[in-house]
Design a protein that fits this description.
Layout lengths: L1 H8 L5 E6 L8 E7 L6 E2 L5 E3 L5 H4 L7 E5 L2 E2 L5 H8 L3 E7 L5 E6 L5 E5 L5 E2 L6 E4 H5 L46 E3 L17 H10 L9 H18 L5 E4 L2 E4 L14 H10 L2 E5 L17 E8 L9 E8 L6 E5 L6 E4 L1 H10 L5 E6 L12 H5 L3 H9 L6
Parallel strand pairs: 1-11
Antiparallel strand pairs: 1-8, 2-7, 3-4, 5-6, 5-7, 8-9, 10-11, 12-19, 13-14, 15-20, 16-17, 16-20, 17-18, 18-19
Helix pairs in contact: 6-7, 6-10
Length: about 400
């Protein structure tokens, strides 16, 4: 049972309590999908998904049978003929799907990172989507269970209860972790930045985690830091290109709500930057940033085997509030004592030291689409199963034309 528990939880993941939120109720989930060729998905007459072919953009975005198409290329699909919808789905574009939460779901706040999770009311444990802790609802722990079998007198052991199979034979120990500074992912130990490490934090308390993530990789690779003005300029040009291909539209239907086109790449106060903004920032500095697909890092020693790889950019997505998305990085630093592995998060004034195994497990534990590798431009991506340069940038051909007109070099 302990082996099964360790296999499910994984290295570095902790236990936590979860508490019912009295102010938040489960709502429908909006699933954004960006596709660069035909979106291979079967829809019925009411635009509900009836089949998701394996290996396509629909499966990568997590679409499931029963999800409903609600917006396509910034337009509400309610007023579009079915033939027009199918024609737009046959070429590059953006779509939003809505997934209705089950009526028996509730919203639970993780007691470790305070993140809200929508889970089944009957769940006796779940994995927090943010800190990846194994969380147990408080109401479940307070429920009255049958008395343990007679003769079960082992001190400080979890009783042999059918409803808590995952916790069989787990001992509780005094380990001092209650006073330790923990990263929300559950990995690493807090420490001062080692000699030679440059650590950038968010500026002025604003959500500039994207700038800090880029600079935490660039400056530690002996490249100049990028300024916040340049990041905002990049995102603004991307917003102009987006507006141009949308024929001057200033607002679109995205993520189930009306949004300004300029805010698709950066928030209105210069905060959370889009992945394309980060990619272009690295491109201008002489580095490539590309998505690491599932299965590329399954071998424990494969994390930093590629030449000229400077680290990984990690994206923590908050499904309850996209404005709370966050960027941080994982990298290796070499020294005379040997390599060390660091998690650098701009929310902290310290870094988190990882073992090589922890760094590997952290990257594997991230949700699909949340891990990006960064290397110098001379490095091929074959070693990590990466995409071509054309696929890495992930900008539609018509968008590239406008980017060129706006002053970007063609990727």
């Amino acid at each position: 049972a302990l082996k099964a528990y360790n296999g499910d939880v994984g290295v570095g993941v902790s236990l936590a309590l979860a508490f019912l939120s009295q102010t938040n109720k489960p709502a429908s989930t909006v699933i954004p999908v960006s596709f660069h060729q035909e979106l291979e998905v079967s829809l019925d007459d009411d635009l509900y998904v009836v089949e998701v072919p394996p290996g396509g953009a629909a499966e990568m975005a997590g679409l499931e049978k029963g999800d409903q198409l609600t917006a396509l290329n910034g337009e509400d699909v309610a007023g579009l003929p079915l033939a027009t919808l199918r024609a737009q789905l046959a070429s590059a574009g953006r779509a939003s799907f809505r997934r209705a939460e089950a009526a028996e779901n509730c919203v639970l706040a993780c007691g470790r990172c305070k993140t809200l999770n929508s889970v089944a009311t009957a769940s006796r444990y779940f994995r927090c989507h943010s800190c990846r802790a194994l969380a147990m609802p408080w109401a479940c722990l307070m429920r009255r269970y049958p008395d343990p079998p007679s003769g079960c007198c082992a001190p400080r052991k979890v009783a042999d209860i059918q409803s808590l199979q995952l916790l069989h034979d787990v001992s509780w120990e005094e380990c001092g972790l209650e006073s330790a500074t923990m990263h929300p992912t559950g990995f690493g130990r807090a420490a001062e930045a080692p000699a030679g490490c440059q650590h950038h934090q968010q500026l002025g308390g604003s959500a500039t985690c994207g700038i800090a993530a880029v600079n935490n990789l660039l400056t530690n690779a002996n490249a100049p830091a990028i300024t916040s003005e340049r990041m905002v300029a990049i995102s603004s040009k991307l917003g102009e290109a987006e507006s141009a291909i949308r024929e001057g539209a200033e607002s679109v239907q995205e993520f189930g709500e009306e949004q300004c086109v300029a805010d698709l790449y950066v928030t209105e106060n210069g905060g959370h930057f889009d992945v394309q903004t980060l990619q272009i920032a690295f491109e201008e500095a002489g580095f490539n940033m590309w998505y690491v697909p599932d299965g590329a890092l399954q071998k424990p020693g494969s994390l930093f085997t590629q030449a000229n790889l400077i680290g990984y950019v990690c994206h923590r997505r908050d499904p309850m509030n996209p404005r709370q998305d966050h960027w941080f990085i994982v990298r290796r630093q070499n020294s005379e004592k040997g390599p060390s592995y660091l998690l650098q998060d701009s929310l902290y004034d310290i870094v988190f030291m990882l073992t090589e195994l922890e760094a590997h497990q952290l990257c594997l534990s991230l949700p699909r689409g949340a891990l990006f590798a960064v290397a110098q431009q001379s490095t091929p991506e074959v070693a990590l199963g990466g995409a071509s340069r054309e696929e890495r940038v992930r900008i539609d051909p018509c968008c590239k034309k406008f980017l060129t007109q706006l002053g970007f070099t063609s990727p």
